[in-house]
Amino acid sequence: MKRLLSVMVLVLGGVGTAWASGPNWETHEQPVDPATLAPAPHPILKAGAAETEKTDTKGSWENRITDVQGTRYTIDSGGRCRITFPELMAEDIHGVCGDGTWTNTVVAESGTLWPLKVGNTKQWRIEGTNSYGKSWKRTDVCTVQGTVRVETTNGTFAAYKVYCDFSWAQRTYYYAPEAGRIVRQIRVTTGGRKTRVSDYIPLE
Fold first, then answer.
1. What is the C-alpha separation between 167 and 149, in angstroms, rounded?
2. What is the pLDDT of residue 77?
3. DSSP H stretches of helix in 12-169
4. pLDDT digits (tens, 9 = 90+) for 156-201
5. What backbone phi and psi angles, to 5 degrees, belong to 128?
6. Predicted pLDDT at 181
7. Is position 35 within any domain?
8. What are residue 20's phi and psi, to 5 degrees?
9. What pLDDT does residue 19 have?
10. What is the pTM for the complete model shown?
């Protein structure tokens, strides 16, 4: 779907260089030695923590954590949507946007993502129902691909690069352990129809 917040999620895809047009939105990265990065356990999320999500195509809005239960958390996104995630970088399990409501249930999971380490992989088997009553089943997978120094519109960070393959989109997250948050996300819808880059800036 921060932090503490900017760990949002929201969620992501790919291979890294020049995903979006414009001098500030191209994603430039250089490999770095994993030994130079701080440990990266799942961040401790706190209700009330907030961040600005700034995008290359959709403007900016505020994400605020409204509820936390362990690694599970709920955000209010721009006053438009309330979305719940089982853990950072996992796909949402419940959402309400306007009159639309959807629910996803994790029926099985395997592997480990946190603490982040190159090669770590986690898989979730999901069953869900959308606001039209349509049901589906899918498998989501996230893998820590490497460690890089990535440029964002809010600075340059040493980060873990995590690639997540969901049924409807692929997301690439850049998680900076020293900042304790996601600093950039690249989302590509399946088939490459739409790409969106998001940078996250914590609000004090």
1. 28
2. 96
3. none
4. 999 999 999 998 899 999 999 999 999 999 999 987 778 999 999 9
5. -145, 170
6. 97
7. yes
8. -125, 155
9. 37
10. 0.86
Residue 18 has pLDDT above 70, yes or no: no
pLDDT bin (cut points 50, 70, 90) of residue 8 is very low
> 103 has which bridge partners?
94, 129
pLDDT at 134 over 90: no
Q: Note whether residue 5 is domain-resident.
A: no
What number is the average pLDDT over the span 24-38? 92
On whether the CB atoms of residues 116 and 144 are closer than 8 A, the answer is yes
Q: Which two tokens stand for residue 158?
A: 């040493």
Write the CATH number for 156.
2.40.360
**Cβ–Cβ under 8 Å, residues 78 and 52:** no
Q: Look at residue 9 and tell me if it is in a domain.
A: no
Burial class, 68, CB count within 10 angstroms (exposed 0-12 / middle 13-18 / buried 19+): middle
Q: How far apart are CA 56 and CA 197, in angstroms?
A: 6
Residue at 88: amino acid letter: L
pLDDT over threshold 50, residue 144: yes
For the chain, the distance separating the N- and C-terminal CA atoms, rounded to the nearest angstrom, is 19
How many domains is the chain built from?
A: 1
Residues in the chain: 204
Residue 90 falls inside a structural domain: yes
Pair type for strands 72-77 and 81-85: antiparallel
- Please name the residues in contact with 76: beta carbons below 8 A apart, sequence gap of 6 or more: 63, 64, 66, 82
Q: How many helices (H) and strands (E) does the chain have?
A: 0, 13
